Amino acid sequence: MEVKCINNAASDNNTYIITQNQHALIIDPSCTDGRIQSTLSPLSVDMIFLTHGHYDHFTGLMPLHRKYADVPIYLNAADHGLAAGDPPLFGNHNQIRIDPLILTDLSEGTIHWQGMDIDIYHMPGHSPGSLVYHIGQYLFTGDVLFDDSIGRDDLPLGNGMDLRNSLKRFAMFDGSTIICPGHGPDSTMDQQWKTNPYLMHIHH
User: Over pLDDT 90: what percentage of the chain?
Assistant: First the structure.
């Protein structure tokens, strides 16, 4: 399995492309400059995963949807409204929106793909439908957990208590797990327990 991170410098959003046996998954397609498409060109695209419904995480989605119209786009149903711009993020009524009809609801569970398990965890707080994806040694955390920080809970439909409860669940992951966040650099779970001020008070 290989993981490629494509960063959108304008918003510091990370798009992840996971490949296995010439097949690909996409997590949070946020780049619009063609780098996603060029990476995918020799591959068979199987699924697109969104970590949550904030538009900066899917600014590059619609060109992919037009090219790969039969590829499912997964997002927890609790965030379908956010993805449709209801309520708008930062009061931006001109934000990119997704028609919920093209989305497939995804709840906590496991998807089998190319001989691997994709474990999905529902971790609300930054948004009500935030999902974290565990694939191999990698944990794709969206805006729940960053390098030495966490996602905001003061945006529309955010909830601080839910976020704190979600953070406690990271104790289940091995220390060598590689954290791949929605913004910023990667890290490891061990490093976050040592240096992330929002995790240091959690017993694990």
Answer: 88
